[in-house]
Amino acid sequence: MGGGYRRTMAKRALITGITGQDGSYLAEFLLGQDYEVVGMIRRSSTLNFERIAHIQDRLTLVAGDLLDEVSMINLLREQRPQEVYNLAAQSFVQTSWGQPVLTGETTALGVTRMLDAIRIVDPEVRFYQASSSEMFGKVQEVPQRETTSFYPRSPYGVAKLYGHWITVNYRESYGLHASSGILFNHESPRRGLEFVTRKVTYAVARIRAGLERTLALGNLDAQRDWGYAPDYVRAMWLMLSQDQPGDYVVATGETHSVRDLCQLAFACAGLEYRDHVVVDERFIRPAEVDLLVGDASKAVATLGWQREIDFPGLVAAMVESDIKLVEHQQR
Ligand code: NAP
Ligand code: F7E
């Protein structure tokens, strides 16, 4: 089937990072909008398709890596998507201090490689870059909006800032329809176990089942604007559906501390967090982002974006899902 024929039939989107939390939800969402969905998968010695197993037969999965521009040029030539969502990254902030160069290669330069592949193969492609509230870091304004100055506090934040500006630069240099979504933390039962929300909810389920007694955490005073991942992938699509590209903050406008998160999550299982949570220096970061809270007014006004699940609803859903998971693991 030729690319021209496909264009008249259904829109085709390429997702990098399709095996990750957001990639899996975005794939589901785009399939629901009648897109053909192509996922870029990097080579690994074992398959890690847990998050997309339920939709795998409806996806086209192709090999490629953000570290290798040729792989992306070939992929674009063969698949001819109209939209590219660049969600792949080394996304864990703590790891970025241990692997700063890899983080820069993937999370920063990887964006240039993909943008350049688009410029070479088909500059009409619409591009979404997964930018991050970590770019605000040591915040210069509360709440943070599109015009707030950036001050990243980790190699990850610095790499994301490069990715953001190279997206703006390719838009201005080559007229690409390239948008940057500055997304605040968003979570779900599919969140990686190393991130604090999922670390807490999975521990709650294991403590409830009598498998653990304590949970070791770092800074309990850090405050984050936590939303629900499926609400956030909808915003990505809305950005590429606009006639004009742009930059958008996506956030709930509320902030909660890690301590609040613990209190709420343990209470969902009838537990008191003070009986179980201990502070462990190993999880304290060399530099912290103390407070994030976003102002999504532009996304609400221009994209018509709204979130559907609030923070207590999110935490309750994650605890419930992890309780079921732990029960399943015990069978
Ligand atoms: P995630 O679960 O960690 O997923 C990251 C994805 O990137 C995985 O599919 C991973 O593949 C892939 N990947 C890593 N290195 C790669 C490489 N060299 N080549 C190709 N693929 C590679 O992240 P997420 O939470 O879904 O986040 C999606 C994106 O949004 C990331 O760019 C993240 O930095 C950004 N972001 C996330 C949040 C949030 O709160 N979740 C907020 C703002 C921005 P494997 O499965 O093979 O490891
Ligand atoms: O940490 C504190 C930690 O790792 C949140 C990524 O998706 O969102 C995420 O980055 C806070 C920090 O997420 C532990 O110090 C305390 O203040 O869940 P996290 P993050 O660093 O905010 C942004 C928007 C992204 O773009 C990233 O890709 O929680 N914290 N104790 C802890 N964090 C972890 N992971 N583990 C602890 O034990």
Written description of the protein model:
This protein is an alpha/beta fold and 331 residues long. It folds into 2 domains: 2-186 and 228-250, Rossmann fold (3-Layer(aba) Sandwich); 192-225 and 254-289 and 310-330, UDP-galactose 4-epimerase, domain 1 (Alpha-Beta Complex). The protein has 11 helices and 13 strands. The chain has helices spanning 3-9, 21-32, 69-79, 93-98, 100-121, 155-174, 196-208, 229-240, 258-268, 297-303, 311-330; strands at residues 12-16, 36-41, 59-63, 83-86, 126-132, 177-183, 186-187, 215-217, 223-224, 227-228, 247-250, 256-257, 277-279. The strands form 4 sheets. It has a 7-stranded parallel sheet with strand order 3-2-1-4-5-6-11, with helices on both faces. A two-stranded parallel sheet has the order 7-10. The protein has a two-stranded parallel ribbon with strand order 8-13. Helix 2 links the parallel strand 1 and strand 2 (36-41). The longest helix is centred in the middle third of the chain and has 22 residues, at 100-121. The radius of gyration is 20 Å and the shape is globular. The model is unreliable at 1-7 (pLDDT under 50). The protein binds NADP nicotinamide-adenine-dinucleotide phosphate and ligand F7E.
